[in-house]
Amino acid sequence: MRGWAGDLGAQFRRLIATHGPMPVARFMGESNAHYYATRDPLGLSSGADGGDFVTAPEISQMFGELCGLWLADVWMRAGGPTDPIYAELGPGRGTLARDVLRAMAGAGLRPEVHLVEGSPVLRGLQGAAVPGARFHEDAASLPDDRPLLILANEFLDALPIRQLVRTDRGWRERLVGLREDSFVFVAGDQPMDEAIPDRFDGASEGTVVETCPGATAAIRHLAERLSRQGGAMLLIDYGHLDPQSGSTLQAVRAHRKVSPFAAPGEADLTAHVDFATLAQIAERNGCHVQTATQGDWLREMGIELRAAALAKSAPEQSEDLALACNRLVHADEMGKLFKVLAVIAPDWPAGAGFTSSGG
Asked: What is the pTM of this model?
């Protein structure tokens, strides 16, 4: 369905009317595939040219600079192995990669650049921002003979989730059905009790548990690669550090939250990232991990000092710099909701900015 054109919502309705309800994962996956393949979604404000949402790299260059310095620092303290790869998953407009590479170059690191991106629209923007970058449809085709320095910012949250709901008959998969031509959640018929972790025993009727098969598979693969090849990875996204229940599926359009059912293929569908599970998977595959909130990590990395230095060299931008810094680190903005997970090869050093391995 990736190549479908026109009203995706209407096509979903026909599909459900003919074949029955579809899993949440399929609804989300097909919606986002259409959405990202047909537009540049980023922008600082609402309106015709303002995009649907903004990410940290678009808010301030400081974010990318500190990510680049973190990767460069780990690389240097690992002995500066030759020919490392910089790989970014879901690189947006290429803004983050450009800022990361500038900071890396200042530290004496000039890696080969590989970008994992499926959208032809965004690939064009990324190629202009980072000339010479090599593109991949997925991480499996990244080089397998050199250390990997991997970065993924707001990538995992858009991967399709699976939802399971507790009903009076036990656990069932949550599906998307129709009621009078409107999309609604319904419970499937197939028992799913064996797929539920023991910690949810005794959960009340209506409880929703989310999993993200794509995220777990990606982290398992990349952790295995880091264990073999060496390197480090930073994953930054919104989510939780402890296991939780409840539906987190949401949609954003023109910088406002809307119903996930409002406009399939025309809004960005996301869900909270389960960092606790991803950290466990990375550890089981030989890596060591560190976690923190984005605000704490950026402060530990010196974002406030960096903002002050930039303001000193460009006083006319001091107010904008202060606003950007606040948006990135304050608990009421992105600082608490967004988390940072570092995944590091077994024989590489721990990364800067984390107060402890558990964050």
From this structure: 0.92
